[in-house]
Amino acid sequence: MSSHVITEIRNHVGIITLDRPKALNSLSLDMVRVLTATLRAWHNDPNIRAVFIHSSSEKAFCAGGDIRFFYDVGTLTPKGDSALLEDFFTEEYALNHLIHFYPKPYIALMNGVVMGGGMGIAQSGVASRLRIVTERTKMAMPEVNIGLFPDVGGGYFLNQTSGEIGSYLGLTGEIIQAADAIYANLADVYIPTTQIPALMDLIAHHTEADLRVAIRQFSAQFASDISPEHSQLAQYRTTIDQHFSGNSLHNICASLAGDDTEFAKKTLATMHKRSPLLMAVTLEQLRRCQSRSVADCLRLERTMVRHCFKHGEVLEGVRALVVDKDNMPKWSPATIAEVTEEMISDFFVEVWPSYAHPLAHLP
């Protein structure tokens, strides 16, 4: 077992505690494997009626994948196609699929930072999930900030948001908080951090057949603290839908440039800091995934991530953000105007025959 993943069973609830606080619980390959093995072991265990996943730290639920690992392994070979990278993304995406179709209630307490891979292990699932946010929640899919795209099923769950909110979040990488998350259908209930001890006591002693029912009843008393009027996404929803519709990054940026509101100016300034190519690739990903199944979205993303490391944009993004920390990535191409359709389409070229795809087994 990983020293960064703690598991226990309490009152017929399998409890998973992410415990890598110094790295904000960034997922390593070892952690992915322990999570997968644990959930598989609990899958058909009649003693376990629900799964609850949380963090030992108030700072972060999970900040994503271990991007320093990506850089270190990705630079070992000229094209970054190390077997360890291959294993990480294949196994992480398979874990996302396992969670998505988990047959028991799957409850995630997204306290603190929840980004990237952390979203993958919290957003997966529809019929079984319950996603809890707090006043400390800082949620994002910030991959375009490091030259990547919103993976771990982002092509699926960002498309489950209302209007063009998913496009806005994917292309800007902006951080949202609890009210925004609930408004965007990226969270279900709000519980203040002062009530987390009471939540854990509820888990330990509840008698409901479905733990989610007990938690929803408990959280109802705090619903007025997190109503839509507290959401900036709700406030700017019309503007977001106006500017982020369509299939062209160039047109989206031109639309924002023609709007002299502070929101539009701030949004455009943010986008000019992101990878121009990966913003365009992200937009194409989100449009292609609108009518795809979870498995097909993950298979598409697995193909895309191989192209990302071959291109090298993600390695440059991680270098600038984490390694050298100069925050001055040299994007290729450097501007949105230089991005071509051919550059975008290269990220969607099939790498494997369908029968040999690493995720071919996903139903």
UniProtKB/TrEMBL annotation:
Keywords of this entry: Hydrolase
Keyword 4Fe-4S part of the UniProt annotation: no
Annotated Enoyl-CoA hydratase/isomerase domain residues: 13-348
Keyword Hydrolase: yes
Signal sequence coordinates: none
Classification via PANTHER family: 3-HYDROXYISOBUTYRYL-COA HYDROLASE (PTHR43176:SF6), 3-HYDROXYISOBUTYRYL-COA HYDROLASE-RELATED (PTHR43176)
Name of the protein: Enoyl-CoA hydratase/isomerase family protein
